[in-house]
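User: what does the whole thing look like in 3D?
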Amino acid sequence: MARQKSRGEAMDPQARKVEILNSAARCFMEKGYHATSIDDVARALGCTKGFIYHYYASKTDLFFDVHREGMDRLFAAVMPATQAVGGPLAVLIAMLTAHARAMMDHHAFETVVAQGVQIHRFGATTPDQRRTLDELIASRDRFEDLFKDQAHAARAVGQIVADDISIAVKMMLGALQWSIFWYRPEADDGPDARDRLAARMVTTIIDGVRARN
Amino acid sequence: MARQKSRGEAMDPQARKVEILNSAARCFMEKGYHATSIDDVARALGCTKGFIYHYYASKTDLFFDVHREGMDRLFAAVMPATQAVGGPLAVLIAMLTAHARAMMDHHAFETVVAQGVQIHRFGATTPDQRRTLDELIASRDRFEDLFKDQAHAARAVGQIVADDISIAVKMMLGALQWSIFWYRPEADDGPDARDRLAARMVTTIIDGVRARN
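Assistant: Here's the predicted 3D structure for the full assembly of 426 residues, as structure tokens:
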């Protein structure tokens, strides 16, 4: 009798890796890096531990790849928006809206990215792991810089006011990224609802709430 | 030869408990709930494990008390601001400023509160633990309600505009609370610098960044 292949094992190699990453993102989100084992990820995916070790030498490597994928997805969402038509402020708004939407679309991955920030700050890692983590955090800084550069451009033409661009961008990104704590994909009403939510989030951030006279 | 008393054991009971909570907040912040042991907390405090078990039956109870203390400190910071002079918007600004400052003053505790939100969402807990966690999350909701009520009051008199108060408040609080990921108490220049940072954060949130014509 032929051994029944699990879902993960039946797919082509690239699709397998995506399935592993999706499963791992969900496990790390739910239990955190420290309490998650390769066993948990295998169980959630319905495959063997060996199947995952074929792709990843360790849990840490797997965590790093989830983090990397989370950053890649943010860049992939926001980069097209940097080419939006309109002045610098219109581009900034398009970037923030794409970012807000990406936080919803890739909820588990972006939750893991936030965990990575804490591990970078406090984690006991090997020199090799440290190097990888430094790279991942550097890519976060580049991501933040995209918004800072755009905010500087918008300020240069008088479209935005902000004494301190660094603080302003931290408030904007923080407001969007904190959604990892309250956004619930399972209660979501689909892409249109996500777009409306993203638009409302960004309007509040750009215009504030004070009534204009 | 008399056994040398550790720092924790030499203090009065209330001060001891505060020392345990401070040490635990730091440990949970650094390693997360799952990877932290009572041993870690004892080692960080320079006391015995038994000393901590005298106050807390389990790591979970200790975690809950750190979470509770984190919420108490937020309420203690923000409640006086609800009595600030001026109209509803002035009060809202005072509350947000006090909140921003409290996030800096109690950085470790507020980081642990955020961990508690994730554990509430995903954690496997006993019915008793669940009840405690439900109460803690309910106190988070009451905290958010303070800001929603105030935002409604400000909107009622035309001082703020927001189609959706719930989203607007989530953006405000998220922007402030995301500071657990970037604020570094060890790089801090003291209370005045913290006040200036808090004021800048809140101005950005209330007024947004779009230039007013």
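In plain terms: Residues 1-5 of chain A have pLDDT under 50 and may be disordered. Residues 127-156 of chain A form the longest helix (30 residues).
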